[in-house]
Amino acid sequence: MQAFSRMLATYGLKVTPQRLAVHKAMLGMIHADADAVYEAVNADATCRIARSTVYKILAGLADKGIYARRYSCNGKIMFDINAWRHLHLYDSVRNEFVDIEADDLLEEVDAGLKGHRFRGYHIDDIDIQIICRPTKKRSI
User: Left, alpha or beta for 46 (phi > 0: left; psi -120 to 50: alpha)?
Assistant: First the structure.
């Protein structure tokens, strides 16, 4: 929690019991929507936070780049505690994200896009999520 507290200070955000409770819940889930975080925070008797406050905290952390937003196929905004550039498998059956390490794929995409121009658009970032469904044998 000390590293998170330092990060908040770096971005000019106050360390509050509510932010710490939301982050503690996210540490246990990695990827979660505001409803799941709300349930996890309020299951812990030490802190009660309104659903709208949980969403505002998550959105604020994502706006600062401390967390990232992910968009699920079921229309929910998911928050990702790992804001660095990485790939995801999105399990369309369970509506879950799984982080995957595949820097070689990111490098291939970067190389493939080098020199391409999209009229009227500037590429800010590339965020890849591979939509899949589980097989009987899951290796991740």
Answer: alpha
Note the pLDDT tens digit of each residue in 79-104: 999 998 889 999 999 899 999 988 89
Separation CA 63–CA 95 (nearest Å): 23
Q: Which domains does the chain have, with CATH numbers?
A: 2-80 (1.10.10.10), 87-132 (3.30.1490)
- Closest to 2 (Cα-Cα) out of 18, 23, 26: 23
Residues 6+ apart with CB under 8 A from 137: none
The pLDDT tens digits for 32-78 are 999 999 999 999 878 889 999 999 999 999 999 999 999 998 889 99
pLDDT of residue 117: 85
CA-wise closest residue to 37 among 19, 63, 17: 19
